[in-house]
Amino acid sequence: MITYFFEEIEPVEIKQEIVPWLNRLITLEGYKAGKINYIFCDDEYLLKVNRDFLNHDYYTDVITFDYVKGKTVSGEIFVSLPRISENADLLKSSFLDELHRVLAHGMLHLCGYKDKTPEEQKDMTARENHYLALLNDK
Fold it and tell me: Which of the 8 DSSP states describes residue 26?
């Protein structure tokens, strides 16, 4: 079950097709959906999460907490909407395209993908692009 929460930020509309798309990503990666929470927030809220739980003192667009058990994907994915907007501007992308990329990125972390090394980053980006193409083919 995928649910959305908004902390310290005005809610944004999440299109209805996003949940089936994320569930399809989970299934195609060989998993089943458990309880997955997306928490949309502002930069300061996510910075506090980053400091308090990861001992990192920098802004980021997404933080994923993995509660996966076996092949059941569960977790919390924190997303900074202002950071998404800024990244979209920097990358000359739309807010929605960047938001969808980050939604997939967090879910891919729950499916076991990492992004610490250049090779892992390349693989993560390829998976993101694959799933974005599936969403955009509707």
Answer: H
